[in-house]
Design goal:
The protein contains 3 helices and 9 strands, in the order E-H-E-E-H-E-E-E-E-H-E-E. The protein is an alpha+beta fold. It has a single domain (5-126), classed as Acid Proteases (Cathepsin D, subunit A, domain 1, Beta Barrel). Strands 1, 2, 3, 4, 5, 6 and 7 form a 7-stranded mixed sheet that branches. Strands 8-9 form a two-stranded antiparallel ribbon. The chain starts with a strand and ends in a 13-residue tail after the last strand.
Length: 139
């Protein structure tokens, strides 16, 4: 099976609040478009140190994370961060990977965005059963 990548936009939501209050111009809102590896084995959004620095996300704490090779390391947690994908958005925390590591879009934000993966086509798209607005399960 090949890899799936998602073109997403990350936004610092605190900047949006300052913009709404007239304290920041729209061009000053820190946001960036990135290509993230879609990783259903990862739970959260993972960004690298460079992305975090550019967005200026707030430090929340630290979390131990088990890596693909089975090793455990302590990772910084930042947030919130808004994720925009097509006509969808969600807000979540992010784990900060060292250096310029590949960003990962994990399963929790993908579920909230209500997207579907097509591994054979190597694509991610909005759920065709809910094309206008995301749907979640509350039971």
């Amino acid at each position: 099976m090949g890899t799936i990548k998602a073109e997403i936009e990350l936004v610092n939501p605190y900047d949006l609040v300052l913009q709404d209050e007239g304290k920041k111009k729209s061009e000053e809102v820190r946001k960036m478009k990135i290509t993230a590896l879609v990783d259903t084995g990862a739970y959260m959004l993972c960004i690298n140190h460079s992305i975090n620095k550019q967005l200026g996300l707030r430090h929340i704490g630290y979390q131990n994370a088990e890596l693909g090779d089975g090793s455990v390391t302590t990772i910084e947690v930042v947030g919130p961060v808004t994720i925009n994908f097509k006509n969808r958005n969600t807000a979540c925390r992010a784990l900060v990977l060292p250096g310029n590591a590949q960003p990962l879009l994990g399963s929790i934000p993908m579920e909230d965005l209500d997207v579907v993966l097509q591994p054979l086509k190597q694509t991610i798209d909005i759920n065709p059963d809910h094309p206008i607005i995301a749907q979640t399960i509350l039971k």
